[in-house]
Every structure is written in structure tokens, then in C-alpha cells.
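quick one before i forget lol
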Amino acid sequence: MQTASDRGRRNRFDDSEALRALLNRLHEAGREAWQRDPEAAALMEHAANKYAALARKHGLDPWEAASAAFEAMRGAATRRADDPWAVVTRAVQVTCTAEERGNGLLCSVHQARRPKYSVFHDPERFSDRENPLPDYHPAFSFDPFTDPDDDQDDERPVHEPAMNVTAAIDDTIAFLSWVGWEPSTARAAVEYITTRLAESVTRASAFEVLRRDRQARALLDLPGRSWTALLQIVLGNPDPTLAHTNTGRGLLVRLLIGQPLRALLTDDDLVIAAGLAAPLLTGGEES
């Protein structure tokens, strides 16, 4: 049963000015004050209770959230903020999110905070799926050798096996790197695109979702013109009248149906479009 003194202590901790006063006192008393001061221990217990629900939401222990709160409380910015609790709460939210992403991505929390890693999906074992992605995903179901309306302009013979998805993704990244894209940016962008593609019904729907994905652009630090051009290069132009052309198929499908990378590098229109879309050549313009 909660006593009146416990309720009073909790209410006092909830007051931002009281928290500021306590943090200033602990700061002035030195680092050992956090270990010896009974008020510090009570404050951390209050933080563990306060952020318990947030911690559980991210699959963490309440004391992991309290640890994040402790780190935030020791900062000068928290003591000087208009609302110290708001700063602490935001810090705990960010840390819990990074902890969850780090656990999912099997990487450190420091890496999980960085966009170049956080855009990826959680690892998935090959054994988790019975069949390869092209065998069941409709985005890769197009086959020019069985489609009577196809213009039959592909360069691979009928007996040549199609490239697997992993190799096609790697070749797409290599192609962009060779025409002027920074390799790490190319990898992060292509892997993000293919992840969203796997979650979509068709390439056209994936294109529309990604075209409006401002968060992806922000995480990848790409200007609007580069992002839209990259989607057209990788996924193809969604215009139905171009569906059976190289422009409509896009780089990824062209690789999957067997067109070799060396042939794609001789496609002047594709090379020029991809090169001009490279972020360093766009001048950082925003759409």
C-alpha cells in the first residue's frame, strides 16, 4: 500500500522544477552523489516506474529505460531545459527505439541510431521461407518468354537460367557505383527499395509507395530528383504503355531475366540517367 510520503515523493519528482533542483544539487555534489544520495536512488526508481510501459512496448526491461533516463539526467542540456522531464522522456524514447532496432538488426545500439543501418529490415533466415522470392512474389512474376505481347528484345537465350535476387541486387548496386553513386548510399537505397518491393503486390504499387516516402529520402539523405530518378532506374517507369520495354522493366528486372551487367553498362540512356541522378551531381536540390 502506498503511503502519503511515497505519494508526496512521487508528486515532487513529477514536477519539472523540483527535478531541475535535484539534478543541479547532484551535479554540484559530484559524481559520487548519484551512488550515495538516497534522493538519487528514489529518483531512479521513479524513472523505472514512469517508463516501464514504454520499455515493455519495445521489449525491454524497465531498468533499461531507467538507465537511458539516468544518462539524460546527467546532461547539462536537461538541467537547462524549459521542461527537464520532456528532454528525459524524448531521450528514453529514442534509446528504447534504438535498443529494439539493435536487437532486431543484431548490431550495436550506436549503429542502430544511424540511418545507414536503421533503414534495413531485421535479418531473415533463408530457411524461414520454403521458396526463393522470385518463385512466389508477384513483383517478379513477369516472364518475357511466356508473355505473347513481349517485344522479345531480351539478350539472353531461352536456356540460360535467370539470375537470383541477391546477385541482381548486388549488380544493381555495382552499376550505380560505377556511374557515380557513392557505394554505401547506393547499397542503402537499393536494399531499402527491394525491401519495400517485397512487401508490395506489384512493382507499380511499390513505386508509388516509395515515391511518396519522405522518411526514406530523409534517412538516405537524397534530394527529391535523385530519389524519383533512382526509383525509375531500379524499378522501371510505371507507365503501362512502357511495361514491355527496357525503360518499363527497370534495372532490377532486366538483371533478373538474364541481361548481363556488361550489356547494361553499354546502354547509354540508362548510364546517363543513372549518372545524372547521382546525389553529388544534382547539387543537393530538393523537390
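fyi Residues 142-162, 281-287 have pLDDT under 50 and may be disordered.
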